[in-house]
Amino acid sequence: MDGLKTRNYLEKMTMCIVSFLDLEKKSGVCQVKNDVKAPAERAAILMWEQKHSLLMPEDLKNFFMTSNGFHLTWSVKMENSTIPVGAMHLNSIGQMLRLENGSSEGTHVQPSLWDLDLDNEINGRKAPSFVDSRVFELDPCDGNGKVCLVYSEVQQESDSGSDEENGFLLPRGMVLCRYIYIYPERTEIKVAFLDLLS
Question: What pTM value is reported for the model?
Answer without folding.
Answer: 0.66
